[in-house]
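ping. complex inputs:
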Amino acid sequence: MKPLHKIILALCVCVGLLGAAFYGCGEDPKTAASTVRVATKNFTEQLILGELMAQLIEAKTDLHVKRQFNLGGTMICHGALVNGEIDLYPEYTGTGLTAVLHQEVIAQPDSAYRVVARAYETQFNSEWLQPFGFNNTYAITAREQDAKSKGWKTIEDLRGTASGLQAGFTAEFSERQDGYPGLRKAYGFGFGTVRDLDPGLMYGAIVQNEVDVICAFATDGRIAAYNLKPLEDNRGFFPPYYAAPVVRREVLQAHPELRRTLGLLSGILDDATMQKLNYRVDEEKRAPADVARKFLESKGLLESAKEG
Amino acid sequence: MSEKTVIEFVLQRFPDLLTKLGEHLILTGISTGIAILIGLPLGIWITRNIHIRGLILNFAGIVQTVPSLALLAFLLPFMGIGVAPAVVALTLYALLPIIRNTSTGLDGISPEIIEAAHGMGFTDRQRLWMVEIPLALPVIVAGIRTAAVIGVGIATLSAFIGAGGLGDFIVRGLALNNTSLILLGAVPAAILALGLDFLIGIVEKKLRRGAG
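pong. complex structure:
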C-alpha cells in the first residue's frame, strides 16, 4: 500500500474510533430527564448496596437508573453529589460525621444519624433516608492465631508490641481523622510500619503474613472466613457507621416515589446478613448484581421471574 | 490556597515526604540497576546472535505494552504484595530501553573500526570491552536514562500494593479529594524524574564528547 494511502487509512480508523466513543457517550434527551444516577464507592459492600437500590428503583418506578459504581472513595462520591453529578449514593453516618463534616465522634448511633442528617440538609441540600440497618465500623483486626497466642482482645492490648507490627491500611484510613491519625491520638501509640493497600488486597495480605493488622470492615465476610479476629475498640474511638442512602433534595422533590421505594430497604440488613452478602461476592466470586437480586427476591421485593 | 499554607502543609508532612521519597528512589534505583545487569548482557548478546534478536526484542516490547497497573496486579498472586512484585514489574519495564539502546549503540559502530581492531590483533572479547562498548556508551546511557525516568513514573503505582513511594500521597489524595496531598506526591515525583533525566543526561553528554 502506498505510504499516503496508509496515512489516510490510519486517520479514518482513528476518526471512526473517536466517533464510536462519542456516540456511546451520548444520551437520549428523553430518558435524561427521568434518569437517576446512583453511585457507589469502590468496595464490595457499596457495590451490593448500589445494586439493591438500583434494581429496586428500576423495578418499582418508571425511572431509568444510570450506574456510576466504583468511584474512587468517600470524598469523590460526596463531591459528585454536591456538584450534582450524581443523585444518590450509600454513605455511613460515622463517615459523614467525621470525614465529611469534620465533627467530633458521636457514639450514640441515633444521635449521630440525627446530627448528620440535619447538617446535610442545611449544608449540602441532601437528605439521609432510613438506614439499611447494619453498622459497618472499622475494626483493627489481627490473625486469630496471633490474637490467641499473644492474648490480644482489645486494641489496647497491642500497645506493647505495636512498634514491631506491620499494619496494612487503605489509603483513606491512613489519612482520615476517624482513621489511623485519630486512632493514634486516641490510644497514644502507633504501629511500626504502615503500608497503603488497595482495600481488596488487605485480607490476602494479612492471611499471607505480609502484614499483622489491618483496618477491616466489620461486615466483611472474609473476617470469619479467613480466621481473623477484630479487636475491641475499648476507648470507643470509632463512631457508629450506619449506612443509608444519601439523596439530593432536588431529586427527591422531582421524584417523590424514590423515598417510598428506597424506604423498602429500611432496616432490611443486619450485620450478619450484610456479612453473608459480602462473602458471596468476595469469596464465592459471584457478581454483586446477582447477589443483590437474589436477596431482593428472597425478601419478596422482586419477582423471581426473569426480567428483560 | 495562600503561599503560607502550602509551605506549612509541606513542612508538616516533611518527614513523611522524605521517607516516601527515599522509598521511591530505592524502588526506581534497584529496578533500574537490575535491568542494567540483565539488559546490558542481553543487548550485547543479540548483536552477536541474529536468531535470538527478534525474540528478545519482541519480548521486551510486549512487556512494555502491557499497562503497568495490569502487570503489577498480575504479579500479585505469585509474589504477594510489597516491594518484591513492584521491583519485578519496574525491572521488566526498564528492560526494553536498555536492551534496545545497547544493541543499537553496538550496531552503530562503523565496520571499519571493527576491522581495524581485528587487524590490530584484538580478540573478540578485547574488542568488545575496549573498543565497542566505550564507543556505544553514549547510546547505552541514553537508554538507562529513559529507563530511569519511566521507572519513576511507574513506581507511583506501587502505592496500591503496599510498596510505598510517592504514589501513596497521590492515592490518598485521590481517595480524599485532597489536591494538596495529590500534589505532595506528584510534584516531587516529577522533579525526581526531571532531575534524573538531567543528571544522567550530563553523563551522556560527557561520554559523547569523549567518544566523538
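The longest strand of chain A covers residues 138-143.
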